[in-house]
Amino acid sequence: MTETVKEPDLQTMTTVGKVLVTDDSTVLVLGLLGYSATKLWNTAVWHAKEAWKTTGKIPSYAKMDVSMKQEHPLWYRKLHSQSAQAVLEELWQS
Q1: Has residue 58 been placed in a domain?
Q2: Containing domain of residue 82, as a range?
């Protein structure tokens, strides 16, 4: 007798907002900040998966924060520190 395995439901988190902008430079800055936050999120997900493969544990928020600052500073430093921390905290809670 074969049993079918149900795939887990994936959670998608999307935030939609409306920003009234009068100039192109603000649009550009907001776009770059969003891009940097996405790249930080994806890098942190990759790091967490690698840590899971090697240790069998998901890194804590504090360890992930330090690791992103030291090992992958490119996307972390493109954001304000509180914004980068908020991205990592949201990932850790998900």
Answers
A1: yes
A2: 35-93
